[in-house]
Prior knowledge:
This protein is an all-alpha fold. Helix content is 67%, strand content 0%. The protein contains six helices and no strands.
Amino acid sequence: xxLVGENASARETLLTAFGTTTVDYxxxxxxxxxxxxxxxxxALGQMRLAQPNPSPQMYFDxxxxxxxxxxxxxxxxxxxxxxxxxxDNAADIQRAITEISxxxxxx
Length: 107
């Protein structure tokens, strides 16, 4: 339903099946991204980071959702947090911080 623009119907389906619209399912996150439903994508990213042992990619994904949702400051905050948790990934994280700061982050 999301991919054909029937967001209300899709949300109802999720609520019926899972009791929430925030479901950790990769296909759903792709649908949120393609339909520019950044609020749902952000909620999903926040849920993923709250799980034990989040990966660096989870930080990148949440930062991207914030960035494309028009919240660059939040995106930078997420990447600064990632830098503290994953110092071994500092080069990639710093590159993302630079791209967010200069508004050149690409999907």
